[in-house]
Amino acid sequence: MLEVKNLDVYYGPHRALEGFNLSVKEGEIVALVGANGAGKSTLLKVVSGLIRPRSGEIHFADRRVDGLAADAVLRAGIVHVPEGRRVFSDLTVEENLLIGAFSRRDSEIRQDAERIYEYFPVLKERRGQFAGSLSGGEQQMLAIGRGLMGRPKLMMLDEPLLGLAPVMVEKVAEIIQSLNRMGISVLLAEQNITVALGVAHRGYVVETGRITMEGEAGALAADPQVRQAYLGI
Amino acid sequence: MIWLFAQQMVNGLVMGSVYALLALGLTISFGIARVINFAHGELYMLGAFFTYVAAARFGYLPGVGISVLGMVAIGLLLDRLVLKPLRKGKMSLWAPFLATLAVSVILQNLAMAVFGPDPYLLSSPFAYNPVIIAGLVVTKQDILIAGVSLAATLLLTLFIKKGRYGLAMRAVARDRQTAALMGIGIEKVYMLTFALSAVLAGLAGALVAPKAMVDPFIGRMALLKGLSVVILGGLGNIPGAIAGGLVLGVSEALGAGFISAAYKDAIGYALMILVLLFRPEGILGKKMRRA
Ligand SMILES: Nc1ncnc2c1ncn2[C@@H]1O[C@H](COP(=O)(O)OP(=O)(O)OP(=O)(O)O)[C@@H](O)[C@H]1O
Ligand SMILES: [Mg+2]
Fold first, then answer.
1. CB distance B181–A50 less than 8 Å?
2. What is the CATH number of the domain that holds B156?
3. Which carries the bigger pLDDT value, residue B102 or residue A224?
4. pLDDT (mean) for B125-133
5. Residue among B167, B168, B180 minimizing CB distance to A70
């Protein structure tokens, strides 16, 4: 459903992505793993329309989406949950959810919010409080809930595990799998390669803007090169 | 003594509600678009002149309405022609500062070219024949000023709190990139912000003009008052702008009544300096928080 072809992306003279090819098929969880500065966030930002690529193409559900503005990409069904959660700290939890549905004009927004509260009861308890008062894990749930309010077909998560306590890491990993069971395809950018490849069906390894390895998640996790480079074993 | 106090309170609240309008416009353009608009006073001046021209043909109240429409156009032009090009890349506080300063000078000179340097009197049917309520003298214009300011303030607050685009404005104020990810049209939000800001300033000009004179340079004082209030109330803080406006209006009026009218403006600045010294976050401002 998502097809990224031969993408080149620059920040000024600095090349961030080079000849980048990646795909996410319907129903898949795909992990995009790599060290700091590899280019994971850049890819997600290009797909969601925050950055323009210099060359290459992005197709989503048989439509070309590169060059579209962020709101058009969102309406096409791609939601980007940004790195660092980026909840609106001085808006309430409820307002954060509502703003996730900003691009929608239908009448089921309230119902969707209630479903998200059912799914994340902590958010319901704190619906009237400022999002800034939530813990890191709760903020991540809010960021995911806010993303769900956009009714994505594909959800791109940028380092959702970063800075979370081990219990929370497990919890968010479960959430990602259950999103997938709801029928949402997932592109997961992560440095936590063990967990990411643990939940994903397929994975890509990025190094300085290029894909150096790709394959079935279990095979990647077992690959001696990957293990040595990223797990130190 | 008590009479004088009460009378000056009334006068102060009327002027204070105008100061609040001025400050609200500055507050939303700073709070949402990070622009300290040094042409804000000229928006006030234009609001007064638009009303003057339109009122000559259609009467005062329709003139105010036409002026408001004109201010929507001016706000949109300011955003599209001057501020939008400055938003490319990293947001700086300096570029909009210098640009709006230039706009302010240009608008003063344009007004000079069209209207000349002499003051005009905008006449309003409400400015004469004051009514006496409980021994206090107020004109209907005063009541109009306070009423319209109150209504505009309430509507704005309600809109920002509950409106779909009000929510979008608050999101953009906080984090424009994430707001874009939510599908919010950032440029639309900026256009709306400056249209609203210009309408508030223009409305202040249109309402006060019948109590004062209109000339191409009335915007300077209006900007100073607006900025003082913003400092009093706390930068980017809406309730603070309202409270700050009323505090400034009342202290000026009490100072004028009990000390000397000549010190009216000085009292405002003294207040501002005190606030800067002892409560730099503003009377209603929160202590600085991390973003
Ligand atoms: N706004 C920017 N301007 C210039 N260079 C940038 C910008 N954003 C990222 N870069 C550079 O592009 C490269 C890729 O960055 P990117 O943020 O995509 O990496 P990442 O894989 O997400 O890393 P991390 O795991 O630290 O989030 C890095 O070399 C980074 O320094
Ligand atoms: Mg990143």
1. yes
2. 1.10.3470
3. B102
4. 89
5. B180
A34 lines ligand 1 (CB under 6 A): yes
Ligand 1 proximity of A42 Cβ (cutoff 6 Å): yes
A1 reaches B (C-beta below 8 A): no
Tell me whether residue B287 is in a domain: no
**B128 is a domain residue:** yes
Residue B196 lies in a domain: yes
Query: Mean pLDDT lowest for which of A79-93, A145-159, B143-157, B272-286?
Result: B272-286
Contact criterion met (CB < 8 Å) for B183 and A103: yes
Q: What is the ipTM for the molecules in this complex? A: 0.92
Question: Is any ligand 1 atom within 6 A of the Cβ of residue A41?
Answer: yes
Q: Could you give the number of structural domains in chain B?
A: 1
Per-residue pLDDT, B289: 44
Binding site membership of A83 for ligand 1 (Cβ less than 6 Å) = yes
Q: Which ligand is nearest to the CA of A191?
A: 1
* pLDDT higher at B40 or B3: B40
CB contact under 8 A, A80 and B181: yes
Residue B283 maps to a domain: no
All residue ranges of chain A with pLDDT < 70 are 232-233
Nearest residue CA, atom 30 of ligand 1? A37
pLDDT tens track for B161-207: 999 999 999 999 999 999 999 999 999 999 999 999 999 999 999 99
Concatenated DSSP letters for chain B? -HHHHHHHHHHHHHHHHHHHHHHHHHHHHHHHH----TTHHHHHHHHHHHHHHHHHHH-HHHHHHHHHHHHHHHHHHIIIIIIGGGGSSS--SHHHHHHHHHHHHHHHHHHHHHH-SS-B----TTSSS-EEETTEEE-HHHHHHHHHHHHHHHHHHHHHHHSHHHHHHHHHHH-HHHHHHTT--HHHHHHHHHHHHHHHHHHHHHHHGGGS-B-TTHHHHHHHHHHHHHHHH-TT-HHHHHHHHHHHHHHHHHHHHHT-GGGHHHHHHHHHHHHHHH-TT-SSPPPP---
pLDDT of residue B286: 66
Say yes or no for a CB contact (<8 Å) between A90 and B182.
no
Boundaries of domain holding B146: 2-278
